[in-house]
Amino acid sequence: MKIGIPQALLYYKYSPLWDGFFSGLGVEVVLSGKTDKSILNLGVKAAENEACLPLKVFYGHVLSLKDKVDGIFIPRVVSIEKDAYTCPKFLGLPDMISALDDDLPQIISCTIDRKLGLRGVVSSIFELGRYFTDDVVKIGLAVHKGFKSLRSPKPSLAHHNPLIREGRLCGLKEGLKIGLLGHPYNVFDPFINMNILDRLVGSKVEVVTIETNSVKSNIRKILPVEKELFWTYEKEVVSAALDWIDAGLVDGIVYLLSFACGPDSLVQMIIEDEAKKRGGNIPIMSIVIDEHSGSAGILTRLEAFLDMIERKKAAEAI
Question: Taking the chain, what is the end-to-end CA distance rounded to the nearest angstrom?
Answer without folding.
Answer: 67
